[in-house]
């Protein structure tokens, strides 16, 4: 019976985790509403999910706001670049699709090729802010590292791109998943990315004790 009232055991741990998952998801959505702040908000979410949801550390919202503050400038600038690139690529996608679906033949083949080619920039976008959440970068260095990891780990990148896209579609089609899916999706992404981060950066294990974002 004593364990039932112990805040570090049983149902209280589960409830605390649920509060973190829902609270962080809603906070992330709120901070992404201006759009230009989506970059640092996403970097902070990834960092907090790794530390508090996976790592079981307490104080999730404190972790989130510290990471948001420390990565804001780089994340903001990187987000602006990413938004401009995404707008151009999506514009190209709509144009190519329009011609491909109406003319068929070679135009349709071009549309399919363009669609698959989008995996590369989409992969870079998926890597950008988890990298920023875990390491310190300049804007140029962040994009360079994201591109290198996208190419070096293409199978994992494709899975993460599909996971991210399906999560976005799910949340758009049914509003209620936004209450928890951002954190759940980031947790699934971390299963791929953390393994790769540790492979490319052996010192990451030591940083768990003295992380620069703490």
Description:
- With 214 residues, this protein is mainly alpha-helical.
- The protein has one domain.
- The chain has 10 helices and no strands.
- Helix 1 runs antiparallel to helix 2, helix 1 packs across helix 9 and helix 2 runs antiparallel to helix 3.
- 29% of the residues are buried.
Q: Report the mean per-residue pLDDT as an integer.
A: 86
Question: Strand share of the residues?
Answer: under 5%
Number of helices: 10
Low-confidence stretches: 203-212
Element order: H for helix, E for strand: HHHHHHHHHH
Backbone shape: globular
Summing up helix and strand content along with how strands pair, one would put the structural category as mainly alpha
Total individual domains: 1
Rounded to an integer in angstroms, the radius of gyration calculated over CA atoms is 19 Å
**Assembly classification:** single chain
The biggest beta sheet reads:
none
Helix content: over 70%
Number of strands: 0
Q: State the end-to-end CA separation.
A: 36 Å
Helices and strands, with pairings:
Elements: H1 10-32, H2 38-54, H3 60-70, H4 72-103, H5 106-117, H6 119-134, H7 139-152, H8 154-173, H9 181-200, H10 204-207
Task: Give a quick set of tags describing it.
mainly alpha, 79% helix, 214 residues
């Amino acid at each position: 019976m004593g364990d039932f009232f112990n805040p570090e055991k049983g149902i209280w741990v589960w409830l605390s985790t649920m509060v973190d998952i829902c609270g962080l998801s809603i906070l992330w959505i709120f901070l992404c509403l201006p759009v230009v702040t989506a970059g640092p908000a996403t970097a902070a979410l990834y960092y907090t999910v790794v530390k508090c949801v996976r790592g079981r550390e307490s104080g999730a919202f404190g972790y989130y706001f510290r990471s948001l503050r420390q990565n804001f400038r780089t994340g903001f600038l990187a987000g602006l670049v990413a938004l401009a690139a995404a707008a151009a690529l999506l514009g190209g996608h709509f144009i190519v699709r329009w011609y491909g679906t109406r003319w068929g033949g070679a135009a349709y083949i071009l549309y399919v090729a363009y669609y698959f080619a989008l995996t590369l920039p989409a992969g870079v976008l998926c890597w950008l802010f988890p990298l920023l959440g875990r390491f310190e970068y300049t804007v140029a260095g962040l994009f360079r590292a994201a591109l290198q990891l996208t190419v070096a780990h293409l199978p994992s990148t494709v899975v993460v791109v599909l996971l991210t896209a399906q999560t976005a579609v799910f949340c758009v089609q049914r509003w209620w998943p936004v209450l928890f899916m951002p954190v759940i999706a980031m947790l699934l992404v971390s299963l791929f990315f953390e393994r790769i981060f540790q492979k490319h950066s052996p010192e990451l294990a030591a940083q768990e004790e003295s992380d620069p974002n703490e």
